[in-house]
Amino acid sequence: MNWLGPEEWQAVALSLKVAIWATLLNLPFALLVSLALARWSFPGKQLLNAIVHLPLFLPPVVTGYLLLISFGRRAPVGAWLEQTFGLVLAFRWTGAVLAAAIMGFPLMVRAIRLAIEAVDPKLEQAAATLGASRFWVFATVTLPLILPGLIAGAVLGFAKAMGEFGATITFVANIPGQTQTLPSAVYSFLQVPGGEDAALRLVAISVALAMAALIASEVLARRASRRINGT
């Protein structure tokens, strides 16, 4: 990528870093929430479902502002995190990870939940009647069957994290080399005379990364399906 300038390369590298961390941090929580929504009955289930999907319906800027007043350095949660763990989120790349994770979480949950709901409960019940614990049933029966959905959810979350703009720029600003991701870099280049070429290069990289992620997800999902079907 020698044809990229230093600022452009920093934006690409930071976007990948943010998207990977957001996806990895989201996966276990998305799997747990998907299981709860698909299989469990408990008070407040519909409320949890609404909260999970709320970022899809709120303007991203509103989500970013809510993050700022909740996790800013002077906000209750943000101040506690800094004092207890030394973790600062506002106007840091770590905050970009949080914003991207929250925006991508509903997409991951929906994909994984649909995969779980497609599993025949009788298969799980059959394993349970043989004396397997709930964890063992999930690990040996449910998880292999939902693997394609898990992969699809991870790819959706990664793609959303790569393209997230509104919540990120509101929560962590647009600081070159620190919080400037691909979308915010494209926005910045389009605001200055002569920046169209740099913006076009970043757009081309965004498209290439998105296509690579989609192709990889298709390949992995097909392999997982073949393994499940034993072919």
From TrEMBL:
The chain crosses the membrane at residues 20-38, 50-71, 91-114, 135-159, 198-221. Residues 12-220 form the ABC transmembrane type-1 domain. Signal peptide: none annotated. GO terms for cellular component: plasma membrane. It is a multi-pass membrane protein. One of its GO terms (molecular function) is molybdate ion transmembrane transporter activity. Its main location: membrane. Part of the binding-protein-dependent transport system for molybdenum; probably responsible for the translocation of the substrate across the membrane. Belongs to the binding-protein-dependent transport system permease family. CysTW subfamily. This is Molybdenum transport system permease. It comes from Parasedimentitalea maritima. The gene is modB.
